[in-house]
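Form 7-S
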Amino acid sequence: MEAPPTPPVPLARLLTDAELGLRLLTGPAEAEVHGVHASEMADPSPYLLGGELLLTAGAELAGSGAGSADGPGGAGLVDAGAYAARLARAGVGAVGFGVTPVHGTVPPELVEACARHGLPLVEVPPGTPFTAVGRAVWRLMEQARTGELRRVTEAQQSLAAAAARPDPVPAVLSRLAASLGGWTALLLPVGGAGAGTGNGATGRTPGPAPAPPAGGAGAPGQRTAVASAGVPVGDGVRAALDGLAARLTAGGAVTATDSLGGTHLAAYAVGGGRALVLATPARAPGDHTIASVAAVLLTLLTAGRPAGDEAAALTRLLLDGDPAAALPPGPWYAVHARGGTGPRALAAALGTVLLDPRPDGVRLLTDREPDPQPGWRLGVSAAAPPGELRTADAQARRALERAEAARAPLARHADPGFAGLVGEAEARAHAAALLAPLSPALRDTLRGWLAHHGGWDRTAAALGVHRNTVRQRVARCAELLDRDLDDPDTRMELWFALRWDRPPPAPEASPGPAAPA
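Output:
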């Protein structure tokens, strides 16, 4: 499952930690913190991403709160107003000011400047190390991340259960609206109510067209909503959602987002010109992941092919343990992918739900020949029947290695021979290790000798050396490699290694300046 972004930590959570003893001097307590950074630079903004709790003791800051002989007061110190302005422009989430040993108290000039810029300023007491504040922030972020992952997992499970109900499209939309606390709808293309949707438009047996739902759906100039769920929205929100759906159709984008009067809007392409649209009062980090799952399910439920093929295949596989019997005859393509951020969106683009997200990439299985996908690097196997999926998986893995080496968006399995069974990177690494003891001249001699099936005279003629030189070099190779060169397995392994050891062709030398006469 695609992990949602790490949620931020509300500053108020840190203020309630009695062990830290933080005190808010100015600014909103509801500010959000996305990380911690400690700096005594006069201008730390080049090293900030935005949203950090910036911890400082004000070593470079001028002010009237100096409390030690080493405190501020000399020339060259930074004005508090300019300092706060830089932090505000950098998007700092909040400032934590540690009192003593540099400043006895937080400089009033800094408090005033932060208030002017709406920047939360927190006093860090002398007994609280900056490290303790940092650990508290990371601990709270991890707790928030775990909670968000749990919420996303539960939502995914409930959406999958809804997709198995008799009326799956309304059930999925209702479950999505409940998970996100907003309004959702599945919109048909303009003028395309029922066009090209078959029995998948609502996920049930065709019948009378559904009545336009509440919330403005079906009003003049608006797209028809197959189904909707949640608290109805006004015409303004519906019009804005229609605009987002039109952007998907016109630009080929998969998702689009906007906001209107504090309402967060989003649209997801579902295929066939249809769009899943959402209107929610807030947007949590995991909402995009949840909506993406719903979009994939709706893509499958409204596609022109019979719904439930993948679920039936998975059931047969679990019960029978036989992939060849579980899947239709195909052909099937195994795909290995890296580089993108939405595995489920990729699966929808490839027309499948058979995917396996992993930390180092994602594996997929599809019955459609894959094309390059924006933001992804793909390795695609040869077409294979269900009984040869293990081989196809290995082919896709090696194809992805070639795609990454060539920086190509897609590479397909092309070599059906023995060399195709081992990836290029592995083959070259093995060749380099095996042939490391041999000089270039010995490698050339060994290559020629193996190519001529151990013939001394023919090898000598091909290399332009005496046959005794060939004998001496081959004997030296056997000694350095500590291998029996009469063993056919050894010869095969060396020949394979030498195939991957060929140096690239040298570039042609450019003609130099003519010599003076």
